[in-house]
């Protein structure tokens, strides 16, 4: 009898999956899959995803090759990270954080910045603990928080006023009273992302001091996601919140070799903070991945060791400033409003004036989303340049704020950006 039942019953979902997948928006088709190369025309220029189309510096990849030719880096590293990289992080970041960092207790190498952040959530969140996130937020924060039992609490950054004709990322502002109002007895953490993805905002000292005061008052852990710290433009000051009075003891600073050295596929990141934060996070990361890619840790170490002498980050900043200008000039010629980023490698373009036929053959994956999804799809198909709809980086309640924008990445070589700019000129035929 049981054999007959098993042959006729629907066996496609015998075991129910965890509700945390739905809570973390992990089941919905994500924006990266919708706007991936396989779904777009073969000649479409990808300015959506934030990865580079050029190689890391030769002297960094040479260090990777050398590591692969020796025995120790081809085996497990210590879960804390290879000592050479921890020493390099100490030398590079210690002065910036105004501390003599302890490589044994205050630095942790992780499998990319994302895994490092995930491990912090694992180490510190209890079921139902609340985490304050500024919107728009890097989309990985949401599942990382919910998968670890946390509850996201959203505070939107306010877009530039209509009266601002040439907005910069600094015109996106926080209302500190809204931040304070978001705090409840269950609040455990607050995430600060500076320079910010996708806005490019570099939080001011005054803004960070206001956030720090709330963190002190309510005893909150601060996760400072600073993976774009090497890309700050226009003389803007990058303030590390961990350096503000009283904040070292409650802040974990997140860094990334992928963003620093054009090596996003290496998945090498790091956390810097007090032993009271790093030690529990080490316990978590040891059981999640055990250790991080060993030979590429050696390469990342070489990168940090030689960066100052080679003036690498200064040169890289100049190169990215030129890349940014290619896109901003194209948007200026179109007469479209955009947010000039003071950090990171993204530009938000106001696409509210882009018109498209309502009966355009959009795929179902786009039809179920905000207007920005349709606009970005139309631009990718008709103009040949892909971008990312910004409503993806908002909760449902505030998604209407993001629907006015598309995120364009300028972490591409100049020839690619110039061709993209040339194509974008055709947008003038679709403006209302």
From TrEMBL:
Record InterPro entries: Aminotransferase_I/II_large (IPR004839), Kynurenine-oxoglutarate_AT (IPR051326), NHTrfase_class1_PyrdxlP-BS (IPR004838), PyrdxlP-dep_Trfase (IPR015424), PyrdxlP-dep_Trfase_major (IPR015421), PyrdxlP-dep_Trfase_small (IPR015422)
Molecular functions (GO terms): kynurenine-oxoglutarate transaminase activity; pyridoxal phosphate binding
Coiled-coil regions listed: none
Any Pfam family the entry gives: Aminotran_1_2
Domain of life: Eukaryota
Signal sequence annotation: none
Sequence intervals crossing the membrane: none
Start and end residues of each Aminotransferase class I/classII large domain: 43-424
This protein's GO CC annotations: mitochondrion
Cofactors required: pyridoxal 5'-phosphate
Gene3D superfamilies the UniProt entry points to: Aspartate Aminotransferase, domain 1 (3.90.1150.10), Type I PLP-dependent aspartate aminotransferase-like (Major domain) (3.40.640.10)
Keyword list, A-Z: Aminotransferase, Pyridoxal phosphate, Transferase
Family: Belongs to the class-I pyridoxal-phosphate-dependent aminotransferase family.
The protein's name: Aminotransferase class I/classII large domain-containing protein
Organism whose genome encodes this protein: Panaeolus cyanescens
